[in-house]
UniProtKB/TrEMBL annotation:
Residue intervals of the Fe2OG dioxygenase domain: 556-673
GO CC entries: endoplasmic reticulum
Native source species: Zoarces viviparus (Viviparous eelpout)
Protein name, UniProt field: procollagen-proline 3-dioxygenase
Chain segments carrying region Disordered: 691-736
Amino acid sequence: MALHSERSSVYVAFHFVVIALLNLTSVTPGRGSSHALSLLQPYDFLYYSGVRSYFSEEWVKAAELLEKAIITKESLFRVRRQCHDDCVAAGRDAFNRLDSEGGSLWDLWTLDWIQQKAECLRFCVGGSVTPAGQLPVSTDIEYEFSTRNPYNYLQVTYYKLEKLQKAASAAHTYFVANPSHLEMRNNIEKYRRMEGVTEEAFQDSELENEKHWVLYDSAVQCEASSDWVQAAEKWKACVNNTLRQTDECRVQCEVAPQRLPEDRGVNSNDGVFEKAAALSLSVLSCQQSCVTQVATRPGRISSQEDFLPTQLEHLHIAQFKAGDISGAVQTLRSLLLFYPSDKDSLDNLQLYYETLGGDTESQGTQPAQEIVRYFSRALEEKRLLYFGMENLDFSFTDPDLWTPEDVVPESLRINWRAEQEKINDKIKEGEQKEEVDDSGFFSGGPVLQVGVTITMDDQVMNGTNRVVLDGVMTEKECDRILQLATAAASAGDGYRGRRSPHTPHETFEGLTVLRAAKLAHDGMVNQSDARLLHELGERVRELLHSYFRSPSGLFTSFTHLVCRSAVAGGQEGRLDLSHPVHVDNCLLEPETNQCWREPPAFTHRDLSAILYLNDNFNGGDLFFTNRDAKTITARVKPSCGRLVGFSSGPVNPHGVTALTRGRRCALALWFTKEKIYRDMEREEAEAMWAAGGQNVVKKDKEEPDGGATPARNARNQAPTERSRGRGRVTGGKDEL
């Protein structure tokens, strides 16, 4: 159907203003009181009531109301979605008559269609939600729920009610969106040590709305392990979930009550058309902003720009490497809708055509229909919004980098180009920015142990806070620890029993200090060897504490003896790494040069070390890179008694080259400046030895920080870096 342009603008304005006005009115009166009690109440009222009960220390009531507020909000969104779907056909007859009616009747048929659809929505929503529950909530309430503050209150409430499993779950859910919150992080560690709290408690209760991020991370992991079939499946599911989540957001913009034009500063002298246009543009702007909302991880302020095109780029590459050339052509054509002149994409398309040979049917594959619909709608919305900016003084921030220049009116292009140049300059500045280590460590301090020499320092290793020390162990000590590893290391230790956590071409075995102490107590390994394993950790700690001139105390956070062995007969043509490039205390995004200090990274780690035990193997070199995970800045070949120490943060991305023959063993150690994160198992082993070898179990009843007050919800604690790309490389325990 094609409407004349002047009719189209009025139709759009009427459509949104009538729906919004009718959504703001009360539901049809005359319903029974029993029915009213079953309707959804205002979730902001339930939340405020729960908070009041919380501060009155009415814990049972507080838990009930806070839980109900969360559930009611979710139910309200589902009702709106269902009503939107149920009312799609409302007024269709009147709508279909628009093209056939001449003269002035078209506006009446437009109103007929809008009124029928509005009546359907009003009746549908009113059948499930109270009149008060349909009103818009304040921006403060929106902020409270977007930062997951209800879970902040719930974790203390559950603790007071001795429901520790629920308390841990609430704490974890809050922490996912507030990863810089030290107090909540400490609470989670305390919950982990409490009896009755299992690992299942530490699940994100809001995960249902973040499935696209779970699939995104899973797809990246499949890429890292070169599992291209699985990667293609995950990326495709990620694209579909991103589109679904975007659509859910757009529906809420349309069905949820909107503020009237007067509330948006529209001139009170404006007529119905001006006010209707302002409201319709506000709805369109809301729907455009869904791109940013969906592309923002929980706890982040900035979105990942080009989120959908980035997924399409990953998808077509994964499909090509998985052998699905036709699928790769379709996905690449979909990507070219956004960037039609991108040289790399056009070159890839030509490569795919050549690979297909004479398969002309596959070569003619068109872009995916769902992407075409997404692109076409977004483009038309942008045209309307830029028209509003130029002629109606409307303010709009375009969420996309791919917007074609010809969509922007000529009068706005100068400012638009200036903004684009600022973005490009910021990208270049970020790429050229010199790396600064804010860890508080300063290399170059004295080496206190006799016989230990500095082999490589910052200058030789082209980095910051890096060092290689030789002579830390004798050959005899290396042999003793190697024998201990052979006798006691267990397969997959540190990786939940997975023998090959990083690559199928190698197997992993590990041993902790506490397990060595217990085995020594049972007479299964030499007692002196177990004590040597413990003593080496202290030896390394003292060396690095001095060399890196730590201004505060340095505590051992984790010690792990780990050996990796090359799988015989499985090394030919190998292209992967023994351990992918990663950073020890943050999540590395090589494409954006960002490193996010949040779970599942071990954010408490401050200093890392690897003490090597042997060199009779091929490959297995440690290497350092820039944040791009590609540019190698230093390489270290293992040998007995060689210690590599470095700060654990984003200035030191590192990985391990493929081990192609033999067995490589090393002692991996991490240190922290926070005493709360010291290695409790290490202390338990020390207590065993102090008690003459008897097992000692310490159980402390710890209360989460904050007592009856929830962890403070600081608005500015979330990372502010802007993410512009894809890819994250993470590891398990990160043993090197």
